[in-house]
Specification:
The complex is a heterodimer. By secondary structure, chain A is mostly beta strands. Chain A contains no helices and 11 strands. Chain A is globular and about 40 Å long. By secondary structure, chain B is an all-beta fold. The chains are: A mainly beta, B mainly beta.
């Protein structure tokens, strides 16, 4: 089954304790991206990757890191989490956005992070 | 500054009637638009899209209309079913095509 898998689904942590949210896709997609969803703000892009070893900042990258060492995996790293990073996080993948940006995104089921 | 706007946070419709969800955008360079549907505790799923060279795209009960001059698009669901109750996001690829910009979403409730 084609899917994007995120782990964990729920995470409660304390300020400053480094954490990693994993994301893996089995569709051989080149493009991967992380979003956070907050009430009234929709989905805001954190980081994206066009392919292996190619990553770039989205609209809200502060406080986050990513890496793309393999095509299927795109972990999100919070080296020193803060309460304002409490949010619902989604990983997504797609074929290349190409010249028209018309490749639909496939999303994971989300990770609800609480930082106290 | 939100480039993709959905000004109605919520919408309630009777089963069998039409649901109309609206989306406005600010950047006239956007040339492709997508709608995603999201159920609680799940990730968004792609629903329907439209290219700027068209003004309408239909897929079963779902139709998206695009008015480029008004920078407005709408999603029509006819007839609405209780299973359509979800949050609907309007999205557009950024002008560099490597970003995808989402609106804040509209929560649709279809009442049996």
């Amino acid at each position: 089954e084609a899917q994007v898998t995120q782990n964990p689904r729920y995470l409660i942590t304390v300020t400053g304790k480094k954490l990693t949210v994993t994301c893996s896709q089995n569709m051989n997609h080149e493009y991967m991206s992380w979003y956070r969803q907050d009430p009234g703000l929709g989905l805001r892009q954190i980081y994206y990757s066009m392919n292996v070893e190619v990553t770039d900042k989205g609209d809200v990258p502060e406080g986050y890191k990513v890496s793309r060492k393999e095509k299927r995996n795109f972990p999100l790293i919070l080296e020193s989490p803060s309460p304002n990073q409490t949010s619902l996080y989604f990983c997504a993948s797609s074929r290349p956005q190409g010249q028209t940006g018309n490749s639909p995104l496939h999303f994971g089921n989300g990770t609800r992070l609480t930082v106290t | 500054d939100q480039q993709v706007k959905q000004n109605s946070p919520s919408l309630s419709v009777q089963e069998g009637r039409i649901s109309i969800l609206n989306c406005d955008y600010t950047n006239s360079m956007f040339d492709y638009f997508l709608w995603y549907k999201k159920y609680p505790a799940e990730g968004p799923t792609f629903l329907i899209s439209i290219s700027s060279i068209k003004d309408k795209n239909e897929d079963g009960r779902f139709t998206v209309f695009l008015n480029k001059s008004a920078k407005h698009l709408s999603l029509h669901i006819v007839p609405s079913q209780p299973g359509d109750s979800a949050v609907y996001f309007c999205a557009a690829p950024g002008t560099s095509y490597d970003k995808v910009i989402f609106g804040p979403g509209t929560s649709l409730s279809v009442i049996p």
